[in-house]
Amino acid sequence: MTPPNDDPGYERSSGTNPEQRGEPQPGIAPRRGSGQRARIAAGMALPLLRQLRADGLDVESFLEPFGLCEEKFALPEVRLPHETFMQLLEACQLASGSATFALRAAQQQDSRIQPLLYHLVSSQQTVRDVLAGTARYFRVLYEGISIDVTDDDDVMTMEVKAEPGLSFPPIAVEFLLARWSTYGFNLVGDTRYELSEIQFRHEARVPLDVYEHFFGTRVVFGSQTDSLVGPSWNLDLPLASANDELGNALKEKVEEMLARLSDQPSLSRRVRGHLMSQLQYANTGIDKTARHFNMSERTLRRQLKEEGTTFKEILSELRRELAIKYLRDNDLSSKEIALLLGYSELSTFNRAFKSWTKLTPSQYRRL
């Protein structure tokens, strides 16, 4: 096992935290490429530690090179830098010697992972309510990662996305989707709950039948999204643990937790939001964007590089996501979509789309 290059330490989430005032914290070295330093609830690592122990490893010895202590992982105010969690996850797999470690760890249940959020979600009336709450409050668990839930043409899709420039390797994607797949079945406690497909953007790391045996359904790699897909009637399934009184009591506390995390968004996120509003006007040049943020092009490029991304990558990813969304709407022609994305020529849009998906817009629409 290779320990991390610097001491990650712990971070506590509170209104008086030095980090929230922009001051350096003792024992926590600044990291390049992390933007506003996305953080993860330390409890998210508890399933990893439980699986290591199940595999016969000494968890205390394993954590020592990281400068971490298992007892603190269950404290809801303790958070880990995103990079530390990624290092921990990859080191766990290496220590276990198993490429399926993330899938197996995802099955380890532990209500100590942000217990307020766990009980709030568990108290909802239906799966629809659970997913709406998950999408809203997911930052309490995992900053920099968002969940987008859609219900189109009788198909329920729960897509997981990382903000631009944030490292989100395949092992982390698999762990997160596997946890939500397992959590969904356990939470509903209903044999009618069904997933029809699991989609991953990356390529398979172990044989396909291993994934399909774990998820109990079709698994697709090289997809356009990282998603759980199922019939939309799942959304109306009731929860056996529904409790409106408890849910209302916990909601205010979780809202307070969310408010404490609502720091100034990263520059890459602000650039993305600005470009979103300017695409249809074709005002997407880096020169105009830099002027909007009152900085030089050079400064904009440098700061985005420090967040691990580039202006070109943000613009391209935004256009790709919107193109796929618009193509699902049969009321929009390819020419209209091209204009909405800021392309003056349809041929330019067609070339860009094929570079993203290996398909033309018309071929993608026929899928």
List its traits.
48% helix, 3 domains, disordered N terminus, single chain, 367 residues, alpha+beta, 10% strand, Arc Repressor Mutant, subunit A, 3-stranded antiparallel beta sheet, 5-stranded mixed beta sheet
Structural class: alpha+beta
Molecular shape: globular
Radius of gyration: 21 Å
Q: Gap between N and C termini, in Å? A: 44 Å
Q: What is the count of structural domains?
A: 3
- Poorly predicted regions are 1-36
Strand content: 5-15%
How many strands in all? 8
Tell me what you see in this structure.
The protein has a five-stranded mixed sheet. It has a three-stranded antiparallel sheet with strand order 1-3-2. The chain is built from 17 helices and eight strands. The protein has three domains: 11-16 and 31-106, no CATH class; 115-261, no CATH class; 267-365, Arc Repressor Mutant, subunit A (Orthogonal Bundle), CATH 1.10.10.60. By secondary structure, it is α+β, with helices and mostly antiparallel strands. Strand 6 (197-199), helix 9 (208-215) and strand 7 (218-220) form a beta-alpha-beta unit. 31% of the residues are buried.
